[in-house]
From TrEMBL:
Signal peptide coordinates: none
Protein name, as recorded: Aminotransferase
Keywords in alphabetical order: Aminotransferase, Transferase
A GO molecular-function descriptor: histidinol-phosphate transaminase activity
Family (UniProt): Belongs to the class-I pyridoxal-phosphate-dependent aminotransferase family.
C-alpha cells in the first residue's frame, strides 16, 4: 500500500551511511597498532590497486563506495576526499526521517515522477528570494555546467588553472580552450589586472571564475569581483561557480556574499551552485543556476523537464523553509569555525606548504623528495583508513607534489592530523 512503512523502519531510526567506527574510538584503540616504516608487501599490493582505480577514474577520484566495493580489504574510516559539510548531512537526514521515512512517505518519492523543472524552481525561488524565471534546476552542478557550455559557449573559453576539470573537459569539440595559469609563487591568487589584460588579448566569448576556487580555495572578495564584472561587461558569457561560497566568510564574522542578486545588473553572468558541498547530499544530485530569464528559457526549451529526483525535490522544498535555513546556518557557522582551526593546524606539519583557503578544503604541497603525493594518499588510506585526493591529474599543478584535504567533523579532523603527522614522519 502506498505510504505504508515497513515494521523494521518503524522500530528505530536508520543510521546514516558510515565508513567505519568513530574517529574518537580510533584515536584511543587503533593508533597504537599502526605500523611505521615502509609498506609491507600486502600494503603495497593494496596501494597498487588504489592507484589503478585512480587511473581508471581519469581526472576525478573514485568515490568512497567504489573503493570499498572493489577493494573490500580496506577499512576506510574518514573520507577527506569528498568536499561536504557532514553536520548539514545529519540535519537533512533528521528531517528526512521525521517527515518522509517515519510517516511512510518514502515510497511516493520513489514511485511517482517528481515535479517538472519550473515547479521545483518556483519552490526554491521563495527560499532564495529570487524570481522563478531566473532559476534553472539541475541534476547536480555537473549537468548545469555541461548544459551551459554546450548551449551558450561559442568558439573560445578562458579557464583559470588549476581548476575544476569539467570546465575544460565538457566543452564542445569546436570550442577552443585557453588557459590562464595561476602561479603557485603567488599562492594561486588571481591577479585581476593581469586577468583583464588576458581577456582583452584572447577575446573569449566565455570566461569561468570559480569562487572560491577548486582545488586551492582561492577567493576573490565580493567588491573586487563586482568591479571585475563591470570591467568585463562586454564578455558575452561569464560563468561564476559559487559551489563553495557558504564557506567563504569575509571580515571577522561568518557572513558570505553571493552574486545571485546581481543577475539583473549583469545579464551576461550565470551563477552555478552545487548543493552537495555545503549540504553533503551528493547522492541525491541537486544543483541550480541563476541567470537571465531568456537563458533559462533557452535551456528548458531543449529538455530538462524531469531532470530531478523525488529526493532532490524534497531537499529543495526543505531548503526553501526559513526554519530549516536557520538550523542550517548554525551548522554552517559551527563547521566553518572548526575548519579554520583544522587548516591552521595543517600549516604546522613538517615538510609541507598549505595554501590559504576560503573553502572547506586545503591544497597541500609536499616539499620533500622522498615521497610523492600519490604515495602519501595511498599510505594514509592503507595504514589509517584516511581518504584524501592526489592532484596529479590537475592541470596547472606539478605532478607528484599536491594533495587536497577536506575538513570533516572535529574528531575526524584530529584523526586526519595524527595520520598526516605519522605519514610525513
Amino acid at each position: 500500500m502506498i505510504g505504508q512503512t515497513p515494521d523494521r523502519l518503524k522500530t528505530r531510526r536508520p543510521r546514516p551511511f558510515d565508513l567505519g567506527v568513530s574517529a574518537r574510538w580510533l584515536e584511543a584503540h587503533v593508533r597504537p597498532v599502526i605500523r611505521r616504516g615502509p609498506l609491507s608487501p600486502r600494503e603495497s599490493a593494496l596501494a597498487d590497486r588504489i592507484k589503478h582505480l585512480k587511473k581508471e577514474a581519469g581526472s576525478h577520484s573514485p568515490s568512497a563506495p567504489t573503493i570499498l566495493k572493489l577493494i573490500p580489504e580496506l577499512r576506510m574510516r574518514v573520507d577527506a576526499c569528498f568536499l561536504s559539510n557532514p553536520y548539514a548531512t545529519e540535519l537533512f537526514l533528521d528531517n528526512l526521517y521525521r517527515e518522509v521515512i517515519r510517516p511512510g512517505k518514502l515510497r511516493k518519492l520513489l514511485e511517482f515522477y517528481p515535479s517538472q523543472n519550473r515547479v521545483i524552481a518556483d519552490k526554491l525561488a521563495n527560499g532564495l528570494g529570487l524570481a522563478t524565471d531566473r532559476l534553472f534546476i539541475g541534476n547536480g552542478a555537473i549537468e548545469i555546467i555541461q548544459a551551459i557550455l554546450h548551449r551558450f559557449t561559442g568558439g573560445k573559453i578562458l579557464v583559470n588553472l588549476p581548476t575544476f576539470s569539467p570546465y575544460h573537459e565538457f566543452v564542445r569539440p569546436d570550442t577552443e580552450v585557453v588557459y590562464n595559469v595561476l602561479r603557485k609563487e603567488d599562492d594561486f591568487r588571481l591577479d585581476l589586472g593581469e586577468y583583464i589584460q588576458t581577456v582583452r588579448r584572447e577575446r573569449p566569448d566565455t570566461i569561468v571564475l570559480i569562487n572560491p576556487n577548486n582545488p586551492d580555495g582561492g577567493y576573490i572578495p565580493y567588491a573586487k569581483l563586482v568591479a571585475l564584472l563591470e570591467e568585463l561587461a562586454d564578455v558575452p558569457n561569464i560563468l561564476v561557480d559559487e559551489s563553495f561560497i557558504h564557506f567563504a566568510c569575509e571580515g571577522d564574522g561568518f557572513a558570505f556574499r553571493s552574486l545571485t542578486r546581481e543577475i539583473d545588473r549583469f545579464p551576461n553572468v550565470m551563477v552555478v551552485k552545487s548543493m552537495s558541498k555545503d549540504f553533503g547530499v551528493a547522492g541525491i544530485r541537486a544543483g541550480y543556476a541563476v541567470m537571465a530569464p531568456d537563458r533559462v528559457k533557452a535551456l528548458l526549451d531543449n529538455g530538462y523537464l524531469w531532470n530531478s529526483s523525488g529526493l532532490a525535490e524534497y531537499f529543495f522544498d526543505l531548503y526553501s523553509r526559513p526554519e530549516f535555513q536557520a538550523d542550517y546556518e548554525r551548522k554552517r557557522v559551527h563547521y566553518v569555525r572548526h575548519s579554520r582551526r583544522f587548516f591552521k593546524a595543517l600549516t604546522t606539519l613538517p615538510g609541507v606548504h598549505v595554501y590559504p583557503t576560503h573553502a572547506n578544503f586545503a591544497l597541500v604541497e609536499l616539499r620533500r623528495d622522498d615521497m610523492t603525493a600519490e604515495d602519501l594518499v595511498c599510505r594514509l588510506l592503507v595504514r589509517r583508513g584516511i581518504y584524501t585526493r592526489a592532484c596529479d591529474d590537475k592541470k596547472g599543478l606539478e605532478p607528484g607534489r599536491f594533495i587536497r584535504v577536506a575538513s570533516r567533523t572535529r574528531s575526524e579532523n584530529r584523526y586526519i592530523l595524527r595520520g598526516l603527522k605519522e605519514a610525513l614522519r
